[in-house]
């Protein structure tokens, strides 16, 4: 007797399958890829009067964007979700502005520049000093 355990499926990412294991979007991309390959082959054969076997690489290149749009999922996203994010990333200035704080605007209780006091040196020598946060006002350590 087999052990059966119910598993909840995430239905948020469910896509209805139309033909086989292809959704409507994937089926449309496959159809467009096939159509572009046939169109490119017809252009090569009828327009350029060349043998289709000699132009296999350009024919594949014509259909490749549609195949990628249908099946390729970089970072778990569809192509139409990724391309706007990629464009926004590439077109942004890619610079971080550094604005130093002014010495007069330090909050109260923050360490002042200069030599540390005796209490500060003692805390630094203690085991676990790297866990000390002055903003939490830890007393009696």
Describe the structure in your own words.
The protein is mainly α and 141 residues long. It has a domain of 75 residues. The protein has a two-stranded antiparallel sheet with strand order 1-2. Helix 1 runs antiparallel to helix 2. The protein starts with 16 loop residues before the first strand and ends in a 16-residue tail after the last helix.
Query: Percent of residues in helical segments?
Result: 40-55%
Overall pLDDT score: 82
Give the amount of beta strand, in percent.
Answer: under 5%
Number of helical regions? 4
Distance between the termini: 61 Å
- Most strands sheet: 2 strands, antiparallel
Order of helices and strands: EEHHHH
Q: Provide the gyration radius in Å.
A: 32 Å
**Spatial arrangement of strands, main beta sheet:** 1-2
Q: What general form does the structure show? A: elongated
């Amino acid at each position: 007797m087999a052990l059966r355990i119910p598993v909840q499926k995430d239905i948020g990412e469910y896509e209805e399958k139309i033909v086989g294991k292809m959704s409507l979007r994937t089926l449309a991309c496959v159809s467009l890829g096939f159509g572009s390959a046939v169109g490119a082959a017809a252009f090569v054969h009828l327009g350029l009067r060349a043998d289709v076997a000699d132009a296999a690489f350009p024919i594949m290149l014509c259909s490749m964007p549609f195949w990628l749009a249908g099946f390729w999922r970089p970072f778990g996203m569809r192509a139409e979700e990724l391309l706007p994010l990629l464009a926004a990333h590439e077109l942004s200035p890619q610079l971080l502005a550094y604005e130093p704080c002014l010495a007069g605007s330090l909050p109260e209780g923050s360490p002042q520049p200069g030599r540390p006091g005796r209490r500060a040196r003692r805390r630094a020598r203690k085991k676990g000093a790297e866990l000390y946060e002055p903003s939490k006002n830890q007393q009696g350590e």
